[in-house]
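Why this split exists: single-chain examples teach little about how molecules sit against one another. For that reason, every record in the complexes split bundles all components of an assembly together and asks for one structure covering all of them. Below is a record exactly as it appears in the raw files.
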Amino acid sequence: MNLYEIIQDTKTHYCLECGKCSSICPISRYDPQYSPRVMIEDALFGFEEELIHNHKLFSCLTCYACQLKCPSDVDYPLFIRKTRELAAAAGEHGDYAHSGTLQSLVGLMARSSIKQRRFEWFSNSYRTSESSDVMLFIGCSPYFEPVFEDIPVRTLDIAEASLKILNSLGIEPLVHPDEKCCGHDALWLGDMETFRILAEHNAAIIKESGVKKLIFFCPEGYRTFKLDYPNYVKLDCEVMHISEFLAQRLETEGLRFNEVKKKVTYQDPCRLGRHLGIYDAPRKVLASIPGIELVEMEHIREDSICCGTSCFTNCDSYSKQIRVGRLVEAKATGAETLITSCPKCQTHFKCAMVARGEEKGPEVEIEVMDLANLVANAIGG
Amino acid sequence: MAEFEPQIIAFCCNWCTYAAADLAGTSRVHYPPNVKIVRVMCSGMVNPIYVLKAFESGADGVLVAGCNLVDCYYLDGPVKCDAMFAILKKLVHILGLEDERLRREMISASEGVVFARVVEEMVEGLKKLGPAPFKVKKGAVV
């Protein structure tokens, strides 16, 4: 694929240069050097070299805020993804956060067939079954735990909460010991080779296990399986986010929760919200828990603001400014807890609250919690 | 078929372990030639990514060695190294790699014999384990 084809594919040539993308872009708000409009302009002028060697190419959060506002319906995030493929082929990559540990782990996972020890955290208090119709995708959570232990983020808590929820609904899900990273980061960083290996592997193990429904607690995995996998592999099962699944069950089975007294606000993760249009399901789940008072932030639903980093790349001071801005907004609602349904949103918000190497303390402190954890608490026992 | 010769990458701190490896050489202590030394200024700078990259590039085992806790040139290098090594060990464990492929040692500048012994032990252990299970990334060479 060359730049001309990318322009054709993403309807970039319809650009009116109105600059709506740059005015809505959360990065452009803080970083004067980053502008989606200028990137598009570079592409249209045929400045391919400048574009693929532009360091800011990897700054885009692919949060889809611009795409929803574009009057010409230019698919800017897809344009970025495809251009990153060109850049990656030319040996370019962004600045990896955590020195690239996470990207390297994904690569090692893809290029080996060893048995991972993914489930040593697993306690016997949860029921799972190897012949279940439902599978819970755990994804990269076990790897996040050691990397982010200083923040501290407990991603496996979300996995355990999800298991608890499914168990309480009478479902004994399959948790597959051989699953690998969904390949979301590899795909959005332009590393197609790694993505293909991972997609083929995951599709194969899912086909072999014969599950009918795949449940995610991570919107990134959900998006990748739902929108990206069908372009590369055949997947014969329904995919669902845990909040969607819960909302569905609320209707059909009339679930009842215990009372949890809390004033909360909700962060729409971009992959779940703008990418897939799921705004109501998590809110419905929140509304069904007695004692929960949901107060909305200034920017919600389609206008929600991203948590500041994607793919653990180009995480800089602007990313932190985006996060702090969002946390200030959350705090302004008077809520005591910020609920999100993405482990990565949680990681990024918690990271922003830890002041590293700075003498001043954290600027904004608010409890950040995953929706699955809140629901698990409401189930009790 | 020739016997499997493991490749070991050793991250050695400039002040202690690198000097120890040097001492092993000048004192004519024999040790297997399977080890490739990467000199770093301090073992505290060995980020998990260094070790993961070594595995990516085809290493079968990795040794991270530096000063003892009491005689670090930069005072608290080994403490930092231990903290990072703990994270690394957990990651590599989840990845499914045998714990023996990674080794953390504190070898002071006068312990050339210890360095030779550690390398010998590692080579012996890795010969039993066989090659690391990762396909080498394109373009990477050890």
